[in-house]
Design a protein that fits this description.
GO terms for molecular function: ATP binding. Keywords: ATP-binding, Nucleotide-binding. In the N-terminal section; belongs to the PINc/VapC protein family. This is Phosphate starvation-inducible protein PhoH. With 478 residues, the chain is an alpha/beta fold. It has 15 helices and 18 strands. Strands 3-4-2-1-5-6 form a six-stranded mixed sheet. Strand 10 and strand 11 form a beta hairpin. Helix 3 runs antiparallel to helix 5, helix 9 packs across helix 11 and helix 13 packs across helix 14. 34% of the residues are buried.
């Protein structure tokens, strides 16, 4: 290996699970070198059969390596330059273990185990290149603990993580400082358009504003100011006032916003110019209720969409309940309890809690049953498994429990949208049930981060629970 490179670049030894997690990880180490032990190739070979995501990734990793090696002119033991194969993404070299390594492992570690043979390779490389950082990269926590116990450097594979700290995730809202108008009010222009007031402002905060970000200013003396950024990121910004969905006259399917964030969410859900909405929030913040109310209003009353399609990942919280009988729709029914609960709320007569129902709403019980049938005929529940190759035209697509999706699955779903389709992703990244997904690598975190600032998308993190005092207290103390 080149002595000049050895002082400036690291040598990363890849565990099998990194390649099975991200087959393109070979191109993700920039100027550093990569070393693939024989045991890693052996384990890739053992995991290549089947139709699972892991098997597909194992096959893809093998194909990527085959392409790199077959195009290489240099011999493998000198390392293969990755610059051309990765189209400039990586400038390091790929080394494959081309010799038998007999490093004495501690007697407590059985040599027959694949993990321990990979640790032996790391020990050997550390002895061979004492001045060069040799680092094991593994998704396996126990493997990293063993490596550190043996005095070896080990780290997780971070490249697919959108954020290290989910507290830094874009919330879609920004509180303005109290002196905002003093700094941004000079030379301000304002005009009316389609019933809303628009402001053109200049000032130090304008470059930070993202398109479709909600801004608010709480003033104790006056009514709080809320607006959405229509154009930002430069020296000037354009703000627009919002529709007040907390007022009875703007109720959506009988639902009114109970707090500031819910009002922001309804402004996104009801805006025909916004094609993609993400709503994050703890249990009971009203994500599903607001989305369904907006979907029913725009489908049945405004005729903007032809039908509502709801899908979610079928990851059970407890043990799986085995095969379910019936059609696709019937199999999905147990997973859609949350939707049913919300439909019951949306279809009840709008009486005060604790008061008897007033007669005449929807023509009494018969009318309510008829409305429910009409609503159900417009709502289709689909399984994620049959989404490939479909195109939804003029549909309102709701992806529930989206935190359980990988970025790849999320891409598959969002790219189903045809002309006139609106996609809404709902989820709570604190409740991930899919194994191997974390808050940082969830598909929901990924799309929130990637879509921010696009003029036809919007995001809101709902803060306040509106379910009941019991649910709110349980969320705080348990």
């Amino acid at each position: 290996m080149n002595a000049k490179r050895s002082k400036t670049t690291k040598l990363f030894v890849l565990d099998t699970n990194v390649l099975m997690h991200d087959p393109n990880s070979l191109y993700r180490f920039e100027e550093h070198d990569i070393y693939v032990p024989i045991m890693t190739l052996e384990e890739l070979d053992n995991n290549k059969k089947g139709m699972s995501e892991v098997a597909r990734n194992a096959r893809q990793a093998s194909r990527t390596m085959d392409e790199i090696i077959s195009d290489a002119e240099a011999s493998i033991d000198k390392g293969i330059d990755l610059t051309e194969a990765s189209r400039g993404l990586a400038t390091g070299r790929l080394f494959l273990q081309a010799e038998a390594i007999t490093t004495a492992l501690p007697t407590s570690l059985p040599t027959a185990k694949g993990d321990n043979q990979i640790l032996a390779v790391v020990m050997y490389l550390q002895d061979k290149f004492p001045k060069r950082p040799v680092i094991l990269v593994s998704k396996d926590i126990n493997m990293r603990i063993k490596a550190r116990a043996m005095g070896l450097h080990a780290q997780d594979y971070f490249n697919d993580k959108v954020l290290e700290d989910t507290d830094l995730l874009y919330t879609g809202t920004r509180e303005l400082p109290a002196d905002f108008w003093d700094n941004h009010g000079q030379g301000m222009k304002s005009w009316k358009q389609e019933g809303k007031t628009l402001y053109q402002i200049q000032g130090p905060l304008c470059p930070e504003f993202l398109v479709n970000e909600f801004i608010y200013l709480d003033d104790a003396t006056e009514k709080p100011f809320t607006a959405i950024v229509k154009d930002g990121g430069g020296k000037s910004a354009q703000l627009s006032t919002l529709v007040d969905y907390s007022h009875q006259k703007n109720a959506v399917w009988g639902i009114m916003a109970r707090n500031r964030e819910q009002n922001f969410a309804l402004n996104l859900l009801m805006d025909p110019e916004i094609d993609f909405v993400t709503l994050l929030g703890q249990a009971g913040t009203g994500k599903t209720l607001l989305t369904l109310a907006a979907a029913l209003t725009q489908t049945l009353e405004m005729k903007r969409f032809s039908e509502i399609i709801i899908t979610r990942v079928t990851v059970p919280v407890g043990e799986d309940i085995g095969f379910l009988p019936g059609s696709e729709e019937e199999k999905m029914t147990p997973w859609m309890g949350a939707i049913e609960d919300n439909l019951d709320v949306l279809n009840r007569p709008h009486e005060e809690p604790g008061q008897p129902a007033q007669g005449g709403n929807y023509g009494g019980d018969w009318g309510r049953a008829a409305t429910m049938d009409l609503i159900r005929s417009r709502i289709k529940i689909k399984s994620l498994n049959f989404m490939r190759g479909r195109t939804f035209i003029n549909k309102f697509l709701i992806i529930d429990e989206a935190q359980n999706l990988t970025p790849k699955q999320m891409k598959t779903l969002i790219t189903r949208a045809g002309p006139g389709t609106k996609v809404v992703c709902l989820g709570n990244i604190a409740q991930i049930d899919t194994p191997y997904l974390t808050e940082g690598s969830s598909g929901l975190t990924y799309v929130v981060d990637r879509f921010k600032g696009w003029p036809h998308s919007g995001h809101i993190t709902l803060q306040r629970g509106e379910r009941s005092r019991l649910a709110d207290h349980a969320g705080e103390v348990l």
